[in-house]
Write a structure and sequence with these properties.
Largest sheet: none
Radius of gyration: 19 Å
Number of strands: 0
Structural class: mainly alpha
Strand content: under 5%
Helix content: over 70%
Length: about 290
């Protein structure tokens, strides 16, 4: 059970970390869903063509980070509404990947390159049979371990580095940051580019972990990641905990299918119902805190 929850949690966490950076920079990107989708397709396509998962991961990271940079440059430069442009990216990504799949592979359905196997899972013999700890630390793809390392690295980056502190300053008070010689737009662009990088890894983990690209493989993970940012109190540790909550919800919906007398469509919607409930609960909590303050 623990092992499955960790696997489900990984793309949530990676995407949420990317969104967190943009939120702290004062320019929340809602294009995470589209970034994940493109990242998954590019990783699978390049890995299938080269026979190297590493090449696929690298290509995905470079391509989506560059795309996120271009998106940020356009949005900031034209002062366009970032929510509207983010929605446009999500819609465009769905169409782009379907078109590219048809052109490159002759199908808009599942793409599974010949000879490309799902990513290997790393086992740690000394602990894999231990209860709870074994499932938590052993038997995952490299992306699970990478997500934990990146969560820690991001926490240090945001609190201990000049760039990280300036990203946060840009979100807290852009005018004050400008007075102190900091260009908020520059650091917001850095944050948006980082969100592309994190989402590329989330997408690559999904497609390479399965050894195939499935249409709509992101399946709303980018949207759930956005809620995890606020449920987690806009902190890296909180985002980790919130991602785990949503992973548990999805795990429960998966094991309930075929075992309980509830329509399958309702079970599939369970993680999203949890997302909605959490979002509403958080809004009520914040409103109550505001009255107390």
């Amino acid at each position: 059970m623990i092992s499955s929850i960790v696997d489900i949690m990984t793309p949530f966490l990676l995407a949420a970390l990317g969104g967190l950076v943009t939120e702290l920079a004062g320019s929340l990107v809602i294009a995470l869903e589209g970034f994940i989708l493109v990242g998954a397709f590019v990783a699978l396509a390049v890995a299938g063509a080269t026979g190297s998962a590493l090449a696929g991961i690298a290509a995905s990271a470079v391509f989506v980070t560059a795309a996120a940079w271009a998106f940020g440059r356009f949005t900031i430069g034209t002062k366009a509404n970032i929510f509207i442009t983010g929605l446009a990216v999500n819609l465009f990504a769905a169409g782009l990947t379907a078109w590219a799949s048809a052109v490159l592979f002759g199908t808009k359905g599942v793409v599974k390159p010949a000879g490309l196997e799902p990513l290997a899972r790393l086992s740690i013999p000394a602990i894999e049979r231990l209860p709870v700890i074994g499932g938590l630390l052993s038997g995952h793809t490299v992306f699970a371990y990478l997500s934990w390392i990146l969560a820690l690295a991001l926490a240090v980056f945001l609190k201990r580095t000049r760039t990280g502190l300036r990203i946060r300053a840009s979100g807290m008070d852009a005018q004050a940051a400008t007075v102190r010689g900091v260009d908020p737009d520059r650091y917001r662009l850095i944050a948006i580019s980082l969100s592309g990088f994190f989402c590329a890894l989330a997408g690559a983990g999904l497609s390479l972990g399965a050894g195939a690209y499935i249409p709509n493989i992101s399946s709303g993970r980018g949207w759930i990641a956005l809620v995890a940012i606020y449920l987690g109190g806009r902190t890296t540790g909180g985002v980790v905990a919130a991602s785990a909550v949503f992973a548990v919800a999805e795990y429960l919906s998966n094991i309930a299918q075929g075992t309980v007398a509830i329509p399958g469509s309702l079970l599939l919607a369970f993680p999203y119902l949890v997302t909605f409930a959490v979002f509403v609960g958080y809004a009520i909590y914040k409103k109550g805190r505001g009255k107390l303050d």
